[in-house]
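ENTRY TYPE: paired fold submission
RECORD: A
CONTENT: sequence, then structure tokens
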Amino acid sequence: MKVHYECAACFLRQAREALDLATSDKSLKMEVMENITRTLGKNFRQGAVSNELGTKIHRIIKKKTGNNDPYHNQRESSNLIAIKVLPIIKRILKEDNSIKNYLKATIAGNVIDFGALGLETDIEELIIETMRKCIAIDHSIQLEKELQKAYNVLYLADNIGEIVFDKLLIEKIREYDVKVVVALKDKPILNDACIPDALEVGLNEVAELTSIGTDSIGVIYSDLSEEFKDTFHNSDLIIAKGLGNYEGLDEINLRDKPIFSLLNAKCLPVARNIGVELGDNVILRL
């Protein structure tokens, strides 16, 4: 997805928050922010790809501060939030165990995103509210038809915390007699999930885990490892969680492969790009 004009302000807000988490050294924060503003000045233009530029900014912060995981505490709190809300979600799923309801549950988990929403958001309340909402674009019937034909399903994970809800959906997906591979980040970036995070919630109990080979926000095709590119292309069906993966896949020409994006449109540019309202739930065939 290409950047919209609002993205510049969001990049700077994320950079400030990440810097405050990464270091208490004010002079270092100033130095790094100068670097980031120069990077934005050079690269923020019409036609720039949003998740590529966001990745560049967060890599600068990690490298310059020497903090490889600024969101460490938020990553831990995300899992705690998800586990706390999990009994409520399971109760809702018990009342309606359709694949569509499981898809809604994992989209509700997608709001656990301090990068898109900021650190002050009441995530717990937002999860419950999101679960109750209708789906603005609903291609769940098409997704179910593809599941009935597929053998290998590649599941592109997004944030830590929401992988607790992904586990529920993957258990449901396995009822279609498919093999599921979950792709995670090689190293921390923002609050994106890595393999150790997935192991912590037992995602390996329901799927094979693999790394995309890099620390990009979403997928940036040129950054992917060759091993993961093979997995990517050899899958029968791709299910992608969250904004970063949507932004990245929007830039990859894979029209011959069924790809479905599951997300909550937490930011206005993504909502506008898809054609929905801010905060809408989306099950979209790309």
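RECORD: B
CONTENT: sequence, then structure tokens
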Amino acid sequence: MTKVFIDGSAGTTGLRIYERLGERKDLELIILSGDKRKDLSARAEALNSADIAFLCLPDDAAREAVTLIKNDKTVVIDTSTAHRTADGWAYGFPELTGQREIVKNSKRIANPGCHASGFISLVKPLTENGILTSDAIVSAFSLTGYSGGGKKMIADYETDELSEALLAPRSYGLSQTHKHLPEMSKICGLDKMPLFTPIVSSYYSGMEVVITLAHEQINGTLADIKNIYGDYYNGGIVKYCENADESGFLSASKMSGRDDMEISVFGNDDRIMLVSRFDNLGKGASGAAIQNMNIVLGLPEETGLNIGE
């Protein structure tokens, strides 16, 4: 039976992975007692005993955890930012061309960032097909539920006395140095990091990443983009959806609780709007991590995941 260890199982992502995997009969979870979770020797033993190790830790702790592994069998799936642009690490978005096989054969897999997953799902097929060139300056914004901010932000939003400031959406990443920018530009083959504005609002989970393009920015048409997405995402966990609007609106929480992703296109040949919707805790975090594990184990990718019709 496959042995799995979640290092950092008390955090938001780790807890959700634990909940999903705890229901599976094909896996054996290695669990440390509360007093052992931060014990270096106990963690090292667990990491080296595991066939699959999920790292749900801050960046520095994730780097340290990797150094504790002294064998060549443990597959590491790191959900932190630490290794997403590092040499020798597979980027865990298997829907990209050729990436599924790379993930399958890797011992070191970097799980994508939530905002980055939405951005890359929209931009990479376009740079790959020449619709966008490497010197394109891409602007995007992302709406997310507060669960993506971790335990402190969840507590701030779920208090009985919610502050007035939290009742309305809030922009952040104001310095334009958001931690997901390096992976966005590298994976998409962009020379410059995108202009990116994340926005958190007072709902638990769900994410909507939006990119707007003028026809002068692209080599092609609205129809070309739709055809590319239709071919690129023709089934599986990431799907292209032709008629995705809800009576003229798009809810950022539509995919809440799910592990799949919906790609859609709106606008006209002059002004084009690209949208990726998913759960920031699903395909944006724990769902993607489990999908990558399933690929490594040779299982159907959707095993243990909540995938819509």
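NOTES ON RECORD B: The two ends are 30 Å apart (CA to CA). The chain has two domains: 2-112+285-296, 114-280.
STATUS: closed
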